[in-house]
TrEMBL record:
<feature type="domain" description="Mechanosensitive ion channel MscS">
    <location>
        <begin position="105"/>
        <end position="172"/>
    </location>
</feature>
<feature type="domain" description="Mechanosensitive ion channel MscS C-terminal">
    <location>
        <begin position="179"/>
        <end position="267"/>
    </location>
</feature>
<dbReference type="InterPro" id="IPR011014">
    <property type="entry name" value="MscS_channel_TM-2"/>
</dbReference>
<dbReference type="InterPro" id="IPR023408">
    <property type="entry name" value="MscS_beta-dom_sf"/>
</dbReference>
<dbReference type="Pfam" id="PF00924">
    <property type="entry name" value="MS_channel_2nd"/>
</dbReference>
<feature type="transmembrane region" description="Helical">
    <location>
        <begin position="63"/>
        <end position="84"/>
    </location>
</feature>
<dbReference type="GO" id="GO:0055085">
    <property type="term" value="P:transmembrane transport"/>
</dbReference>
<dbReference type="InterPro" id="IPR006685">
    <property type="entry name" value="MscS_channel_2nd"/>
</dbReference>
<dbReference type="Pfam" id="PF21082">
    <property type="entry name" value="MS_channel_3rd"/>
</dbReference>
<feature type="transmembrane region" description="Helical">
    <location>
        <begin position="21"/>
        <end position="42"/>
    </location>
</feature>
<dbReference type="InterPro" id="IPR049142">
    <property type="entry name" value="MS_channel_1st"/>
</dbReference>
<keyword id="KW-0812">Transmembrane</keyword>
<keyword id="KW-1133">Transmembrane helix</keyword>
<feature type="transmembrane region" description="Helical">
    <location>
        <begin position="90"/>
        <end position="117"/>
    </location>
</feature>
<dbReference type="InterPro" id="IPR052702">
    <property type="entry name" value="MscS-like_channel"/>
</dbReference>
<feature type="domain" description="Mechanosensitive ion channel transmembrane helices 2/3">
    <location>
        <begin position="63"/>
        <end position="103"/>
    </location>
</feature>
<dbReference type="GO" id="GO:0005886">
    <property type="term" value="C:plasma membrane"/>
</dbReference>
Length: 338
């Protein structure tokens, strides 16, 4: 049976006894368990408190985990009695290796610490990445941040991209935001009638923040297009709709189409008028007869649109009544694992 005090291994010209190795292993094990337990305790405590401070509790749990593991590492080094001079050499060699092979990993780890401390990005925020993808921040880990899209797709983004790249945080300061829904009507349409129809559409969608006051819906004449007068319905959204941009736009488009149809407002499409002066030396009725067109074929307008039927499915999507609708509380809360 080996003597636990016998010197068993030599590392960097230093020998270590079994007792030192076993003690160091116990310290490392205790540090890991303590980090996990403390993080779970903080997470459970945060769930019993006001969810407005969820991001702060999440940051605290991560920092406590990293601190305990760091302290445990140095206690292991101290127990093994590694001289600081040799540890410096080891750290220098490790630094060279990091510079060549692990540079991106270290950069992502440092960026994750920066994100946790400066609070420019928090768990529960709704962000738009430089690639155009949008989603809610679910988790900020050592290497990468998990973004969950409204289609329940997990996007794993390296932390360094949030520090060095451009990220739009839709909920950084507050959750209210304004959207502009473009639409067009035929030339000659009464502007006041268009405005009334658009405001009726805004009132019909439950995500409009306020119908009166400074945040009321507005209708802007924004463009004189080639085939249409361009308008925009400008609406402030309530917090429920801020994180569903695509579905919200679809809901207002649906309501606009219904309102414009109700007021018999024509929604034009790109078109060109062709005036035939002569055809094979023929003109007027003779040219029309050559093309085999009746007069009513030229004067006939577009057939009236069928009345709108059915429910506005986009409203159900934003409200969580249709399709995938994860609870925001689950996304906003830090998870206990990992």
């Amino acid at each position: 049976m080996p003597d636990v005090n016998a010197e068993v291994v030599e590392i960097l010209d230093n020998t270590y006894a079994w007792s030192d190795l076993i003690t160091a292993a116990i310290i490392a094990f205790v540090a890991i368990i303590a980090a996990i337990v403390l993080r779970r305790l903080i997470v459970r405590y945060s769930r019993r408190k006001d969810t407005a401070h969820t991001a702060t509790w999440y940051t605290l749990s991560r920092l406590v985990t990293y601190t305990v593991l760091t302290v445990g590492f140095f206690l292991v080094i101290s127990e093994l009695g590694v001289p600081l001079s040799e540890f410096t050499l080891l750290a220098g060699a490790l630094g060279v290796g990091l510079g060549f092979g692990l540079q991106s990993l270290v950069a992502n780890f440092v960026a994750g610490i920066v994100l946790l401390l400066d609070k420019s990005l928090k768990v529960g925020d709704f962000v738009e990445l430089e690639s155009g993808a949008t989603g809610q921040v679910r988790d900020i880990r050592m290497r990468a941040t998990t973004i969950v899209t409204n289609d329940n797709i997990d996007v794993i983004v390296p932390n360094s991209e949030f520090v060095t790249g451009r990220v739009v945080n839709w909920t950084h300061r507050e959750v209210r935001r304004r959207v502009r829904i473009p639409f067009g009507v035929a030339y000659g349409t009464d502007k006041e009638l268009v405005k009334r129809a658009a405001l009726e559409a805004a009132e019909a969608v439950p995500f409009t923040l306020d119908l009166e006051g400074p945040l009321r819906p507005q209708v802007w004449l924004s463009e004189f297009g080639d085939s249409a007068l361009g308008f925009e319905l400008v609406v402030w959204l309530n917090p429920e709709a801020t994180m569903k941009p695509v579905a919200v736009t679809a809901a207002y488009n649906w309501a606009l189409h219904t309102a414009l149809q109700r007021h018999s407002i024509e929604i034009p499409f790109p078109q060109r008028d062709v005036h035939v002066r002569t055809l094979f030396g023929l003109s007027g009725e003779d040219a029309r007869d050559a093309l085999r067109l009746e007069k009513h074929d030229l004067d006939e307008g577009a057939s009236p649109a069928a009345p709108a039927t059915g429910d506005n499915d986009a409203i159900s999507d934003v409200s969580g009544e249709a399709g995938y609708a994860p609870e925001r509380a689950d996304h906003a809360r830090p998870r206990e694992d990992g």
